[in-house]
Amino acid sequence: SAVISQKPSRDICQRGTSLTIQCQVDSQVTMMFWYRQQPGQSLTLIATANQGSEATYESGFVIDKFPISRPNLTFSTLTVSNMSPEDSSIYLCSVEAGYEQFFGPGTRLTVL
Amino acid sequence: AQSVSQHNHHVILSEAASLELGCNYSYGGTVNLFWYVQYPGQHLQLLLKYFSGDPLVKGIKGFEAEFIKSKFSFNLRKPSVQWSDTAEYFCAVTTIYNQGGKLIFGQGTELSVKP
């Protein structure tokens, strides 16, 4: 299994600003994933982050808006840039271990 | 594109009632199937999974799911629900086209169990 922590757990931000979300795993993992869960909706994959390579973004998500870092095998960050109220969501980090995905507690972001 | 559909957005049951949540996916090839649960204020956690073999899989807390390939379905069941089963339930799938663990989620079903 894997235990994942995220910081911050929640934040309220002004439009036009940026927020960086941190994800820490208690073991080394190759693949980390970032998901978004908009209010009342399901989880949507934003990007896959492998250590040592550029993140792979899903359709509808771009690096300029959601830059991702993956400096080592236990840590990743997701930045939500130039925020607007439409970015208000829960952002979740997950990792794959043994053909199973484990999820972090999420970061609840509200943009005013 | 692959997709997952959950038929019920909100289900309300009384304790001891039986539960069945529908899940259908659109993909004709090999799939890995999952049910996740998110209790209020808690992490998303895995209930059960199907990779291959016996199509009837058992998970935690008395839940089970049956994979019916001909119907592209993976419905979740529990014979007798408890108040503590109140949560949101997500069906998810990975396919050969989104290998590497990328999960495609259904819309989620909110289950409310009345004591």
General description of the model:
The complex is a heterodimer of chains A (112) and B (115). By secondary structure, chain A is mainly beta. Helix content of chain A is 0%, strand content 54%. In chain B, the strands form three sheets. In chain B, strands 2, 5, 6, 10, 11 and 12 form a six-stranded mixed beta sheet that branches. Chain B has a four-stranded antiparallel beta sheet with strand order 3-9-8-7, with no helix packed on it. The relative contact order of chain B is 0.34. Chain B is globular and about 40 Å long. Chain A binds chain B through residues 31, 33, 41-45, 48, 92, 96, 99-106, and chain B through 32, 34, 36, 42-46, 49, 51, 90, 100-108.
Task: Give descriptors for this structure.
heterodimer; A: 112 residues; mainly beta; four-stranded antiparallel sheet; B: 115 residues; six-stranded mixed sheet
What would a concise description of this structure say?
The complex is a heterodimer of chains A (112) and B (115). With 112 residues, chain A is mainly beta.
- Assembly context of the chains: heterodimer
Structural class of chain A: mainly beta
Cα separation of the termini of chain A: 37 Å
Largest sheet of chain A: 7 strands, mixed
Poorly predicted tracts of residues of chain B: none
Radius of gyration of chain A: 13 Å
Q: With helices defined by DSSP (H or I, 4 residues minimum), what is the helix count of chain A?
A: 0
Quantity of strands of chain B, as a count: 12
SSE succession of chain A = EEEEEEEEEEE
Helix content of chain A: under 10%
The most extensive interface, with participating residues per chain, is: A-B, 18 and 20 residues
Helix content of chain B: under 10%
Beta-strand fraction estimate of chain B: over 45%
Helix/strand order of chain B: EEEEEEEEEEEE
The largest pleated sheet of chain B is described as: 6 strands, mixed
